[in-house]
Design brief:
Layout lengths: L2 E8 L12 H10 L2 E6 L2 E2 L1 H4 L9 H19 L5 E10 L9 E6 L3 H6 L8 H10 L3 E4 L17 E6 L8 H9 L4 E5 L11 E6 L5 H11 L4 E3 L7
Parallel strand pairs: 1-2, 2-4, 3-4, 6-7, 7-8
Antiparallel strand pairs: 1-9, 4-5, 5-6, 9-10
Helix pairs in contact: 1-3
Amino acid sequence: MKYYQAETHCHSAEISPCSRVPAQYLVSEYDAAGYKYVFLTDHYHPHVLERPELKKASWEERIDYFLSGYHKARECAQGTNVHVLLGMEVVLHRSEETGVGDDFLVYGFDKDFLMENPYLYRLSYEDFYRKISENGLLTFQAHPYRYGLKPVEPICYDGIEVINTHPRHASRNAMAIDFVAQHDLFVIGGSDAHAEEDIGRGGVMLPDGIGTPMDFVQFYRENGSPELIITFGADNI
């Protein structure tokens, strides 16, 4: 069976305030880098869903805005070899003082899930994971050792992002690998692309046939963690 490069963690400038890479550029660069799958994981965050421009918006209007980056990327992928899939990065327990919280990559959801489960970032760890589990989704704690953080315990996620190749943050990937070695968890890797130089530095290898986010979840459930794409030096990032 042939396997292909898949990006599991990247952000569009259309939605994520910290990204400077428009969806069109993301798609074209991942296509040039030979990636077949790109999960767009824009930030599900108060700075996105509660931005001043959305003050009078309904929840559906907020979700339509959140999904607009994904729809733009899908549109841009037409005529390329890239298949864009939906994901998100949800922040929990964000500190108002530092702006930092624990981030979780989520896969397998659709608009209906977002509509039926508003303001996920206001939930406790336990309630968040209960919603993830009840709906058959998959979640990984992203870059759990960045900013001096550590993996949430008791464990309330399916896996850990053990390789995050963002070049401007100390993600301390080796510590994440050590943590996973002590627990029965899935692993994932991603570029965490926010800028031009981040694109195509990480990810996982996936086979043909990943047509929907739930196919990706099913692949993990049936096969375990896939092979990771590791940029030279990423273990020290």
